[in-house]
Amino acid sequence: xxxxxxxLYESVSDKGHVCVGLDTSPGYIPPxxxxxxxxxxxxxxxxxxxxxxxxxxxxxxxxxxxxxxxALGRAGFDVYAKTLALIHEKKSLVIxxxxxxxxxxxxxxxxxxxxxxxFEADFVTLSPYMGMDSIEPWLAYAKDKGKGAFVLMxxxxxxxxxxxxxxxxxxxxxxxxxxxxxxILADQYRGNYGYGAxxxxxxxxxxxxxxxxxxxxxxxxxxxxxxxxxGYGAQGGAAEDAALLLRExxxxxxxxxxxxxxxxxxxxxxxxxxxxxxxxxxAAGEAVVVMRDAIWKAAGI
Length: 301
Prior knowledge:
Elements: H1 4-15, E1 18-21, H2 31-36, H3 40-55, E2 61-65, H4 67-70, H5 74-89, E3 93-100, H6 104-115, E4 123-126, H7 139-145, E5 148-154, E6 167-169, E7 172-173, H8 174-188, E8 198-202, H9 209-221, E9 227-229, H10 239-243, E10 252-256, H11 258-261, H12 263-271, H13 277-298
Parallel strand pairs: 1-2, 1-10, 2-3, 3-4, 4-5, 5-8, 8-9, 9-10
Antiparallel strand pairs: 6-7
Helix pairs in contact: 3-5, 3-13, 12-13
């Protein structure tokens, strides 16, 4: 069975580890281009198109955070659907960052919404904290359509210690319990490159030597899980941090949103010129290349 996770592995091999996060707030758009749009929804769509067009050949995939589109109301859902469609037109892979975590028929409806129709994506993000029965309804789409998911395991936010770090036994923490369950699932839905159809979200901004040891151990312990790695750039993670979560040069994509979408602000300040979407897309493309090359270097590739 050829899963989307296999396609992602191949995309990383071809293009590097960068996942471009389209967490597009209207405030990220150059004021000139935003002012010319009929609405903020239209401004976001035009900005997304420019970013995707410039970065699709340099990024392994895209991650679209649905909250930014929900905030735009009904028009935002149209922008969301059109953004997903353009990514697919570019033959790129897209992660719908929706963090669903319900069960039974509700989960089945969520799965239908995001693995079929207008909002169809290649991957979704899921929360496992209602139990594995919140994951199971999505699995039919892995079996039938090769779809994938990234399940929250050890995230990059400050509050992750509130629950994910709770000790269960000895030095085992709650996030280990999630990883253990996902590893079992990965063996049941193992792709051509040894990774399960469903992977894990593991953050890349360790702040201490102990945390670096933890994430290194996670990579070794869960060799059959492909990682979606947030925390790079604006959240403090560096290429060296992300490289700890890779496996033999692959096994993970590293997400960056603000540091790519807002790269134009630095370039405009340095050049002393007014930016538009074309200028912003060019800066985003340059930021992707810098990030990609830094991760390659840190990973010894």
